[in-house]
Write a structure and sequence with these properties.
6 helices, mainly alpha, flat
Length: 154
Amino acid sequence: MKIKSQRDFWSGLTFLIIGVAFAWGATNYSFGSSARPGPAYFPFGLGILLALLGSLVLFKALTLESEGGDPIGPIAWRPLLVIVVAIVVFGLALPRLGLACTLPLTIIVSSLADREFDWRGVLISCVVLTVGSWALFIVGLKLTIPLWPIYFTG
């Protein structure tokens, strides 16, 4: 069987493998029921959904002709490393700095991955995402995420 799109083939295969791994890993936890879902319910569903999407992309890569076979370009190391650093910064900073400081910091760090960095867009994203996250996670879902740095709250 001939691969007609390298990009779609490898991305579909990656999605399929990650989706199956998450769904399989979720089977170690309790599923619960639809009314009271357990810890496996959400990751299992997302894993299956990701595996199905990966299968669809993989099928497309093997059946639909693309111009030039969509070759894979070089790995973009800078954006990859910047995004990984941003995720680590978020994980380390959230318990100490709270949501109000950590989200803007994470957004600014992750924005450095783009060569066309624009302060106006980044600041708008900081405000919108921080207020939205506060409304969703702290007000709406009542999660015990610190809003302000531990230095301000005592």
